[in-house]
């Protein structure tokens, strides 16, 4: 029997595949993605992480018990205290300074996805917010694993090898699995109507994630 999270993915199978197997991802795995496309993606991903932190701050507010509160706070601290610093350092390796990051304007794709997540969390509960964030957290873990299994993926001397390593790392995979487990537990006894509400959120967030890849591939602002 499928888990609730598997059912979410099955409810938008075409959208999920279009996101996880996007041309941006394929070129990244093959090492053929233009440097300018990856740099554009990295810049916008910095802005996304800032709003990702805001989303976990919202999750702190939306928490209903001490367990949820601690989990949300830990995620918020991980983004603000660890991941943002790591991202800034990684951007520096690609010739993007912290000063440049501070002056960036958000692309339409960044605006669309981040504001959708925040608006979903504001109008709904903490489960709505987690489901809106799941395509990012869980999707990147699945994309990393998918790339490792593809014959076209280049592991030796791939300029994007560190990116693949990041999302196939034990730490990230464990974090993604923990998110899946949490969502499965929260969705265990929901009604069909509630499932359809969450499936719509998941589908829309997945499409917006695919648009984020497209933004990077075509250098859209």
From TrEMBL:
Keywords: Hydrolase, Thiamine biosynthesis. CDD domains: TenA_C_ScTHI20-like. Its EC number is 3.5.99.2. Pathway: Cofactor biosynthesis; thiamine diphosphate biosynthesis. It catalyses: 4-amino-5-aminomethyl-2-methylpyrimidine + H2O = 4-amino-5-hydroxymethyl-2-methylpyrimidine + NH4(+); thiamine + H2O = 5-(2-hydroxyethyl)-4-methylthiazole + 4-amino-5-hydroxymethyl-2-methylpyrimidine + H(+). It comes from the Bacteria. Catalyzes an amino-pyrimidine hydrolysis reaction at the C5' of the pyrimidine moiety of thiamine compounds, a reaction that is part of a thiamine salvage pathway. Belongs to the TenA family. This is Aminopyrimidine aminohydrolase. It comes from Yanghanlia caeni. The lineage of its organism: Bacteria, Pseudomonadati, Pseudomonadota, Betaproteobacteria, Burkholderiales.
